[in-house]
What we know:
11-stranded mixed β-sheet; 3-stranded antiparallel β-sheet; 34% helix
Amino acid sequence: MRLFHRFAEDSAMFDDEHLVSVAGLVPVMALAEQTGLTSMLADKVCVASPRIKSGAANPAAKLATLIAGMCAGADSIDDIDLLRSGGCRQLFNGVYAPSTVGTLLREFTFGHGKQLESVLRAHLLALIARADLLPGVDTRCFVDIDSLLRPVYGHRKQGASYGHTKIAGKQILRKGLSPLAATISTDHAAPVVAGMRLRAGKTGSGKGAASMVTAAISTARSAGATGEIVVRGDSAYGTRKVVRATLGAGARFSVVLTKNTAVSRAIVAIGDGAWTPVKYPGAVRDPDTGEWISDAEVAEISYTAFASTKDATTARLIVRRVRDARYPDALFPVWRYHPFFTNSTEPVAAADITHRRHAVIETVFADLIDGPLAHIPSGKFGANSAWVLCAGIAHNLLRAAGVLAGGNHGRARAATLRRKVVNVAARLARPQRRPVLHLPSHWPWADAWLTLWRNTIGYTPPQPVAI
Length: 467
């Protein structure tokens, strides 16, 4: 590709008052208004005793500005200035400066974070009612819980401390903050954020997990989950508190247990004839029998977890074993064992596949890290807690916008939605005082953009029936 024109040094000017770079925010924020985001923020978030009185004024509009900026790709407070450039002032009302938004976030405490978490859950339910965000939720849905460690730098980050994280399969000690997240997904839908909570970097992964699981199951029930709910987690969440909370909420669990002598004895007790080959990377079908020829096998055995406590639970211990790649030429196979504990009624191979799909929560983390959580911006822990929750709200809003855009956009990554739908340049015109957006011709994803436009701008909410 080559340049078509010869440009001079003064051939580029930032002087167009009617050009916007984020035209896709118009239908996205229309969707936010239709689902009551601003009114929820106004009703639920209140800073009663601010240190700076002007900073706590109009929190709903300021938080909506932040969420809109995150939908457009903001990963720092200064990036919100994008919404005050060009024709954005004529498209959006009540856009606040980054410094004003930052002042509000620094007023946030733990209680304000709980208020914002309530907004996240209520807005998620409104989005589910507005768009088909969780198809199949009435049959079966999954609540996944996990945490990540986001690195921070400098000496003034409240709550920052050294914690363990795994990178490329190796445990690494790094300084950071640790958000805990719970997501809801189905067999046919990408995960949405049901709850988030920021914690210190050194906090154990499972701290606060039981209460978050209970809240996420309640949210799933409110979203229409009348069928089976399966809670999935890794070894940090294979605790009696999480299992007790899951059973108390009427859901099923599929969690990894920390390896100990009791688990090891149960694995040894599995007979050689109980192992069944399963589909695994590199597996092939036997042309004669049609069975899988694989380096992975699964088996199950009854197991009582937490036997010495009042929460003793008897269920299935399903074990997947994989040949250890470090010993390819061993005379006898050397296995690595991966057990998980579940009260699922699925066949053993299907239960193993269901549990392994817990990794879907990592796609949410990847979206957040590639967007709002690329940085943890503030030195105040309360401000960063609010930032994390706003990131969750923005993620759900983009997910709903993708569903309304149709096609594969319902499962697309947030970065893909920003590139194809949100960050589209347009010129605002007003022929006969009627606002019109002129977008690039031959835009490859024009059909999806217009589908989202018609499903939001042209949407008429159902009217109540007169009695």
